[in-house]
Amino acid sequence: MGEQLEGFSNLRTYAEAVDWINGLIPFGIRPGMARIETMMEMLGNPHRRLKFIHVAGTNGKGSTCAFLTRVLLQSGYTVGTFTSPYITKFTNRFQYNGEDIPEETLLALANRLYPIVQEIAATELGSPTMFEVSTALAILYYAEECVPDIVVWETGLGGRLDVTNIVYPVVSVITNIGMDHTDILGDTVEQIAFEKAGIIKPGVPVVSCVQQPEAVEVLRKKAEECRTTLYLAGEKFAFEYTGNRGPYQSFHFSGPFREYDIEIGMKGEYQIANAAGALMALEVLRQYMAFVMEEEDMLKGFRETAWAGRMEEIASGSAPRIVLDGAHNPEGAESLRKSIERHYPHKRLNLMMGMLANKHHESYLKHILPIVDTLILTEPDFRKKMDAAALRDIAEGLKHSYGKPDLQIIVEPDWKNALELLKSRTEAEDLAVVSGTLYLISDVRAALLGQTDSEKGW
């Protein structure tokens, strides 16, 4: 277990380990690489022994990671997947071949990290944050416990100063760029693009589906500085929606090496761009890194990819149709509206939403209100929640310009009561949607599926 600090008694249970890691949350999100670099040095730089696919972007990171993981597993590779936030349980963050890290392994690794964290906390660097410790734990797990062929590695926030940027990947992916976390990343598309572009490394190919000309310019400049190839959608590869067949939506992909007709089971028009970006990254691995992937396995992997809380229909007996989608920013709301229109014919649309206090809620509502009949505003069970009454004030201000004439707005701060209200108001031909922060989606999903041991968090 390594040297322990004098007077330190081990964390004894999985619950204690998770409580300790989550107890670091008050240290907040502090962009910068010094603490993670120090931790890695003290552990012998285990991250240098692994191959990573590094995924950044405003929306679609989790889905892109899911596509990459599923196809690589289907092709016979062993895969580590590090993602955040998690939907059901803390261990969801650290997966190996689609399975969560065992609780006893997490406990053992937390005990290795505890004295190191204490030591760093006593210096001018200050205490490592929850996300830094989680990242270090993931690296230890993959480098020393299971040693996968490749790790699918999702950024936490931004890219340039995000602690996941400690790694040197074999390929990088930037899904898209939108207005999110502007309090930390900057409030223009260029500023946010600059932060995301921070994951681009010398000689490491980068794939992106970014569209805004000003963002593309930032990525192009960074790729040129790093003397590497930018595989940009619309330039180096293209994809086109070709329709729905049963539960699948299909698209045609044409890339620099091959063309494919792909079917995906994940709903949502934005999932086509996510799948296309993942496919381009896999093509780079295939073409330049000697990864062997049969076309049949790739097609099967894309078809079978699923991701909780993203346009996920929850079947609950004879109850109404309920779709969960963690759209929480303007781009997410626009995609959600298009996806509902494409995949879910309905008579009335009842939308329940709860948000955190740091988002662009006005722009979000402008996108979604035109198709909503009843809007139920609630609050996630989380310390940074947005007050439901404050959300109502925003919605009321937009109602006449963007809402239907008979739009009903209801405030119910208790999400459990709000969910019952949503169910009771949704008839057989209607559609119920729960949207907003994943902290809300996590709780609602656990309630609908009858999961009692659900944890949640960033």
TrEMBL record:
Protein keywords: ATP-binding, Ligase, Magnesium, Metal-binding, Nucleotide-binding
Enzyme kind, highest EC tier: ligase
A GO molecular function held by the record: tetrahydrofolylpolyglutamate synthase activity
Domain of life where this protein originates: Bacteria
Stored Pfam families: Mur_ligase_C, Mur_ligase_M
Residue span(s) of domain Mur ligase central: 55-281
InterPro entries according to UniProt: Folylpolyglutamate_synth, Folylpolyglutamate_synth_CS, Mur-like_cat_sf, Mur_ligase_C, Mur_ligase_C_dom_sf, Mur_ligase_cen
Cofactor: Mg(2+)
Mur ligase C-terminal domain location: 309-437
Gene Ontology annotations for the cellular component aspect, listed alphabetically: cytoplasm
Catalytic reaction equation(s): (6S)-5,6,7,8-tetrahydrofolyl-(gamma-L-Glu)(n) + L-glutamate + ATP = (6S)-5,6,7,8-tetrahydrofolyl-(gamma-L-Glu)(n+1) + ADP + phosphate + H(+)
PROSITE patterns: FOLYLPOLYGLU_SYNT_1
Annotated EC: 6.3.2.17
Protein family per UniProt: Belongs to the folylpolyglutamate synthase family.
Protein name listed in UniProt: tetrahydrofolate synthase
Organism whose genome encodes this protein: Paenibacillus albilobatus
